[in-house]
From TrEMBL:
InterPro entries: A-crystallin/Hsp20_dom, HSP20-like_chaperone. It comes from the Bacteria. This is Hsp20 family protein. Gene3D superfamilies: 2.60.40.790. Residues 36-116 form the SHSP domain. It comes from Nibribacter ruber.
Amino acid sequence: MKLIKDKKFLQNVAHYIDVTNTVGGGVIQPQVRLQKRQKEVVLQVLLPGVETEQCQVVLDKNQLTVMALHHNQDYPVMQAPLFHQQFALPPQLDYGQIRVVRKDRELRVHVPYLPQGPRLLDIEQW
């Protein structure tokens, strides 16, 4: 048995298999890792073969949805979901400061913690 040494060919074939699996009703399950850091939580999603333009990250209340769609160049209206995954975020996170960064084959969602401890509030005059 001969081994195929052309990495670009293997990547294209793997991507084609993923797309045909998705069109046939399956979905890609990306590798997901959650890191709890001192000042933030980082959600890392490994996305080999998926372009940044295909990705969408949606925040609705405390539900974070990470998804990717396959766009057909011949039929732009037709889209097939590559993956769709939801995460329930805990209340101690600052949802207004979320950053989404794409680096190489990885999508990172940075969610900082809310400030801890007592906070002095301003008193308004009527």
